[in-house]
From TrEMBL:
A Pfam family per the record: NIR_SIR
Reaction equations catalysed: 6 oxidized [2Fe-2S]-[ferredoxin] + NH4(+) + 2 H2O = nitrite + 6 reduced [2Fe-2S]-[ferredoxin] + 8 H(+)
Natural source organism: Gossypium gossypioides (Mexican cotton)
Annotated family: Belongs to the nitrite and sulfite reductase 4Fe-4S domain family.
Annotated protein name in UniProt: Ferredoxin--nitrite reductase, chloroplastic
One of the GO BP terms on file: nitrate assimilation
Annotated keywords: 4Fe-4S, Heme, Iron, Iron-sulfur, Metal-binding, Nitrate assimilation, Oxidoreductase
Cofactor(s) it depends on: [4Fe-4S] cluster; siroheme
Statement: the UniProt record of this protein carries the keyword Transmembrane: no
Source species, domain of life: Eukaryota
EC number(s) stated in the UniProt entry for this protein: 1.7.7.1
Signal peptide bounds: none
GO molecular function, one term: 4 iron, 4 sulfur cluster binding
Length: 588
């Protein structure tokens, strides 16, 4: 494979935080430790033999390592999924009827598995013949032109078409049919978007600071780094076979804020800004992940890289994971399982020997993320570092938008801003670069008054929900509409005065990230008062944003969804200082 090199311009000087802001909610976050825990694991030399090799431009699992592999690995061996894009296989699939595609195993595997390498997820259970398409949107930055194009795609699908802001600062569009895909891919390319390598055993959307470049208190602008990571991983949207055959999905983020908006503790690789001997760079966290059977926070790699080595380091970590990762039980194939098996020092040495200089510097003790910081609320109006301009964060209830919403958002960005949006991991949207003289008019726009408020209620503000069983075949319960309904009803019972995060996920795969929420709801089957099966939720408590904290823990199992409202109201009163509405009115 051809080599890939990147040079960065010198980053801006880190900015000291201002203490003048009066709108900071009292949610504490802490910077992650940068010294790795001491671990010693004996590893047989043969275990470090790479399990994949390059053949005709693609990376293939060697025959000697194929015993006990999972079904998805077998599908990849039969045909590299990236060939559907790089060798125009998608054009042939798009011409076939779904009935014909389903008749043969090869083409059925194409539509149900391999197309995920193109960001296409067949909704066989709930939308047979239709696909969700996931994009790559590094740092969550998008434009009005891109948004209008996506709106035009979903509009043609009527009630089957919609879009969601995801928990990785990304767009997912729904209702896509296979015959339209070649033209959609062409249209994405024309507006500077791609869906390539956004699903299955690939690197997911690189996350960065949603306020990058506009925040008066940012540490570093993360956009150059997330953009280059995305370009590298997809070979500038042409397809990169070197990293298209990982053992499992892999998440990366670049931290640019003291607020840790990027959630570094739940990423496989997190770049934490730090200086060393006068040079700017990053300490590294590795291994954070969620899955149905195990959830772990990222741990320090005890390594620091300069800004120039962001891409080489990413390449080295990915190669170590690709070469050595386990490919059996899919519940044990995330990178943290490999780190556990090898021990952090052996894993670190495997990364080091894949670096251009064959070594890694130890972590710096000059962290730039402040050790204590009051996490700021980005919703509402806030001044930018550019004098005379502000950004406005607007609440998108559980991340769901329709085509008309997207067109109207694009109009607002063009009329009042610079034609740009920022998507956030909490499924909200930021409109940057608004002249202060235009703020009043923007705030009076019907869309912001009627649907996407800059000042939602406290409980609505922190509400996140996965797709749920409306579209997702793995979800056990409906999430988005139920999350809104339960929250509305709880708000009638209690008054909450502190920031709260409530996350909903439809199944144990925890796409809704319930473990980082104050209160999390994981879909399950429960039993009602008559012992009959019904939709329910396991409730988690105590998750906190910030890598100082532990993940939330299971509090109550199998609560029927119809009983959630009084249970949640009681939890808010007992654990989070909420006040019952009747008592509050009586005191008034």
């Amino acid at each position: 494979m051809s080599s890939f090199s990147v040079r960065f311009f010198a980053p801006q000087q880190p900015l000291l935080p201002s203490t003048a802001s009066s709108f900071k909610p009292k949610t504490w976050v802490m910077a992650a430790p940068t010294t790795a825990p001491a671990t010693s694991v004996d590893v047989d030399g043969g275990r470090l033999e790479p399990r994949v090799e390059e053949r005709e431009g693609y990376f293939v699992l060697k025959e000697k390592f194929r015993d006990g592999i999972n079904p998805q690995e077998k599908i990849k061996i039969e045909k590299d999924p990236l060939k559907l894009f790089m060798e125009a296989g998608i054009d042939e699939l798009a011409k076939m009827s779904f009935e014909d595609l389903d008749k043969a195993k090869a083409t059925k595997d194409d539509i149900d598995v391999r197309l995920k390498w193109l960001g296409l997820f067949h909704r066989r259970k709930h939308q047979y013949g239709r696909f969700m398409m996931r994009l790559k949107l590094p740092n969550g930055v998008t434009t009005s032109a891109q948004t209008r194009y996506l709106a035009s795609v979903i509009r043609k699908y009527g009630k089957e078409g919609c879009a969601d802001v995801t928990t990785r600062q990304n767009w997912q569009i729904r209702g896509v049919v296979l015959p339209d895909v070649p033209e959609i891919l062409k249209g994405l390319d024309e507006v500077g978007l791609t869906s390539l390598q956004s699903g299955m055993d690939n690197v997911r959307n690189p996350v960065g600071n949603p306020l990058a470049g506009i925040d008066p208190e940012e540490i570093v602008d993360t956009r150059p780094y997330t953009n280059l990571l995305s370009q590298f991983i997809t070979a500038n949207s042409r397809g990169n076979p070197a990293f298209a055959n990982l053992p499992r999905k892999w998440n990366v983020c670049v931290v640019g804020s003291h607020d840790l908006y990027e959630h570094p503790h739940i990423n496989d690789l997190a770049y934490m800004p730090a200086t060393k001997n006068g040079r700017f760079g990053f300490n590294l966290l590795v291994g954070g992940f969620f899955s149905a059977k195990r959830c772990d926070e990222a741990i320090p790699l005890d390594a620091w890289v300069s800004a120039d080595d962001v891409i080489p380091l990413c390449k080295a970590v990915l190669e170590a994971y690709r070469d050595l990762g386990y490919r059996g039980n899919r519940q044990k194939t995330r990178m943290m399982w490999l780190i556990d098996e090898l021990g952090i020092e052996v894993f670190r040495s495997e990364v080091a020997k894949r670096m251009p200089q064959k070594e890694l510097e130890r972590a710096s003790d000059e962290d730039l993320v402040q050790k204590q910081w009051e996490r700021r609320d980005y919703l509402g109006v806030h001044p930018q570092k550019q004098e005379g301009f502000s950004y406005i964060g607007i609440h998108i209830p559980v991340g769901r938008v329709q085509a008309d919403d997207m067109d109207e958002l694009a109009r607002l960005a063009d009329t009042y801003g610079s034609g740009e949006f920022r998507l956030t991991v909490e499924q909200n949207i930021i409109i940057p670069n608004v002249e202060n003289s235009k703020l009043e008019a923007l705030l009076n726009e019907p869309l912001l008054k009627d649907r996407f408020s800059p000042q939602p209620s406290i409980l609505m503000k922190g509400l996140v929900a996965c797709t749920g069983n409306q579209f997702c075949g793995q979800a056990i319960i409906e999430t988005k509409a139920r999350a809104l309904k339960v929250t509305e009803e709880v708000e009638r019972l209690v008054s909450v005065s502190r920031p709260m995060r409530m996350h909903w996920t439809g199944c144990p795969n925890t796409c809704g990230q319930v473990q980082v929420a104050d209160i999390g709801f994981m879909g399950c089957m429960a039993r009602d008062e008559n012992g009959k099966p019904c939709e329910g939720a396991d409730i988690f408590l105590g998750g906190r944003i910030g890598s100082d904290s532990h993940l939330g823990e299971l509090y109550k199992k199998g609560v029927p969804c119809k009983n959630l409202v009084p249970v949640v109201a009681d939890i808010l009163v007992e654990h989070f200082g909420a006040v019952p509405r009747q008592r509050e009115e009586g005191e008034d």
